[in-house]
Amino acid sequence: MRNTAKLLSTVASVAALLGSLTMVAAPTAIAADEQKKLTPVEEGKKIAFDRKKGNCLACHQIEDGALPGNMGPPLVAMKARFPNKDRLRAQIHDPTQFNPGSAMPPFGKHKILSEDEVNKVVEYIHTL
Hints:
Number of domains: 2
Shape: globular
Radius of gyration: 25 Å
CATH topology of the largest domain: Cytochrome Bc1 Complex, Chain D, domain 2
């Protein structure tokens, strides 16, 4: 009888261990899905909407952005406004070169964003 109880206890322990292993595997699968490779446009949007990075929504209205500001112009028809993507990049990198009194921070010049981040934001903004 004592051996039977010990065996049942061991079986229960193994079952609990196996159950906990499947719980560990599930978040790993979810984490892999979350780390899906984003396109440069998707990464640019993420940076532009990030309140600690680009924070474009603090001043600009963007179609699907929440709580936009109205200090800067709405970011619409960007391909028509900036047919040359390099000009848009220059505007984001250092808007003071075109308007010394601009309230927009020079994201690239002051290293608020890395050159790669500026490029990704340009890719996103140019799609608007």
